[in-house]
Amino acid sequence: MAKQPMLKFVKIDRDMPEKRTADTRREDFDEIYAEFAAAKAEEQASRCSQCGVPYCQSHCPLHNNIPDWLRLTATGRLEEAYATSQATNTFPEICGRICPQDRLCEGNCVIEQSGHGTVTIGAVEKYITDTAWEKGWVKANTPLAERSESVGIIGAGPGGLAAADMLRKAGVQVTVYDRYDRAGGLLTYGIPGFKLEKDVVMRRNQLLSDGGVTFVMNCNIGEDISFEDIREKHDAVIIATGVYKSRDLAMPGSGATGIVKAIDFLTVSNKASNFGDTIEEFENGTLNANGKKVVVIGGGDTAMDCVRTSIRQGATSVKCLYRRDRANMPGSQRETQNAEEEGVVFEWLSAPKGFTEEGGKVAGVMVQKMRLGQPDASGRQAPEVIEGADYVEDADLVIKALGFEPEDLPTLWNQPDLPVTRWGTIKAEFKTGATDMDGVYAVGDIVRGASLVVWAIKDGRDTAEAILEKFDAKAAVAAE
Question: For residue 1, is it within any domain?
């Protein structure tokens, strides 16, 4: 009888790839987790219970066929595992690194619910695709036939690139427009290298280019080219700009120098530390934490990126203020633990009420202590001020990581008819991404608000499929 290759969770404990020590990882921007070796990947994949209703798959936005590629990995059929993974996910090696698996697939693993510890899905996913790259299994798109239709995509982030990949596979002519000098959006400039090394993103960009996607970089819509010109050039347009407008704090002292936005801080750090670019704001210290007391305001994943980046830049101290407690923070618990290991101090139940300054430069954050009261409209306990418990936290650099909002695209692009919600996001149909403007679609955060990379990938793929169906329907009518 053949040996059972799966259901080994009762005999084999959960194990993650080795994590570099905090002392060593503070010194660079390299990823902190090592790669699984083949034997370890097979061992950990074999823990999957192959359950009849795979909650890991149903709780993945892309509905990745996780049980099948775990089984293929466990039995040494790695090229098939890669093909299965790639069939539903444009960027599996990226999702394996940055997806919050603890809230999605792994957080809903059946064996986790039974007390055996979840299957290390993300680490295996990363291993499968990294191996595929090493073995040369990852190939550029070669469509069976070219099509005459053309699609313009505004935004080279994960949503736009996922749509570009799907459309090029079908032979559609694709042009991607982006304001930055490198494609990838937040994958390139928002997420630090210690979570996602940049060569991982650059090789995907190159693959898309090799497959026939045209990139127009350093292109600002409304300045370098109008939205109307893009519509005229293409049969369909996908808006995939993401949300980059930072939420602000209007309080005493907020105009002092040394109070900066998270997106500016992270973008400059990625350019300087991961690409070796010379950036004036980094060189002159404006967006550089070296030698400074840093305070980061916020409790999401962007805040975690900022505190851990500050440590690597050589800050003398790094503190994170969050108005709720640890259990109620929106960021990843795994990232919080990594930050604490690296020397970040978290001040829970603490909120800013203003800033002190000396000579126009920030000198400290006026902090008010909070307690959790009754649940708010979202069901979370609302923070309440504890009177008389204020204090000042010394700071040379304050980073605001308060979340992001959409830019005013109708005004920026001179498109008053572009349909937006009261929050400024674009109104688009669920599943297809279609807007009320003929031939104009929207995907990712510009529709959802600030969300996860994996949701942007899903939106891009779904919208590409909807556009292809519309092209096919038009072609069928024309042929009659």
Answer: no
**Element housing 187 (H / E):** helix 186-189
Instruction: Quote the tokens at residue 343.
Output: 């020397």
How many Cβ atoms are within 10 Å of 258's Cβ, its own excluded? 18
pLDDT digits (tens, 9 = 90+) for 348-381: 999 999 999 999 999 999 999 999 998 888 888 8
- Residue 393 belongs to domain spanning: 246-404
Alpha carbon distance 306, 322 (integer Å): 14
- Interatomic CA distance for residues 212 and 164, integer angstroms: 10
CATH number, domain containing residue 236: 3.50.50.60
**Residue-wise DSSP of 358-373:** ETTEEEEEEEEEEEEE
Instruction: Based on the fold, state whether residues 35 and 19 are members of the same structural domain.
Output: yes
What whole-number distance in Å separates Cα of residue 91 and Cα of residue 157?
A: 12
pLDDT digits (tens, 9 = 90+) for 72-109: 999 999 999 999 999 999 999 999 999 999 889 999 99
**Mean pLDDT of the 373-402 span:** 92
Q: Which of 366, 384, 404 is the last residue of a domain?
A: 404
pTM strictly above 0.85: yes
| Four-point Cα dihedral 349, 397, 451, 448, nearest 10 | 100
- Supply φ then ψ for residue 270, to 5 degrees: -65, -40
